[in-house]
Amino acid sequence: MRSKNTIHIADLLKRVLGDRKFRQGVRKAEIALHWNEIVGPEIASRTRPVQLFRGRLIVECDHDVWRTELTFLKPEILKRIAEVEGEGAVKEIFLK
After folding, report:
1. How far apart are CA 74 and CA 58, in angstroms?
2. Is residue 7 part of a domain?
3. How far apart (Å, rounded) are the C-alpha atoms in residues 80 and 74?
4. In sequence order, what are the residues at sequence separation of 6 or more whose Cβ sits closer than 8 angstroms to the Cβ of residue 3?
5. How far apart are CA 93 and CA 72, in angstroms?
6. Helix 20-33 vs helix 64-85: angle between axes, to the nearest 10 degrees?
7. pLDDT tens-digit profile of 49-87?
């Protein structure tokens, strides 16, 4: 006998997968997983993506020199992220 509070698994999956926070969390995890391939091993060893919110990716750098370097590489990084995640997944990069 089903209770009034039960929900079909398909409906639950639609809710979870349709949730923006969930999708952004998955995208951030995928970007982190592919970070080495996106920016290259040297930059990846000095930086890491820490947050993705409303198309804005926050990248933490271990030194000001790397933050300055990445400022000039933002267009290329955005292009590579689009290749991995699809166009528009990340619209801006903020360096921290």
Report:
1. 12
2. no
3. 10
4. none
5. 11
6. 110
7. 999 988 999 999 999 999 999 999 999 999 999 998 888
Give dist(CA 22, CA 19) in Å, integer: 5
Q: How many separate domains does the chain show?
A: 1
Q: List, in order, residues 6 or more apart from 92 with CB less than 8 Å away.
A: 55, 56, 57
Cβ neighbours for 36, distance < 8 A, ≥ 6 positions apart: 44
CATH code of residue 29: 3.30.300
3-state secondary structure of 38: helix
Residue 5 within any structural domain of the chain: no
Confidence of residue 19 (pLDDT cuts 50, 70, 90): low
pLDDT of 13: 63
pTM attached to this predicted model: 0.75
List strand residue ranges (DSSP E) for 1-96, in order.
47-53, 56-61, 92-95
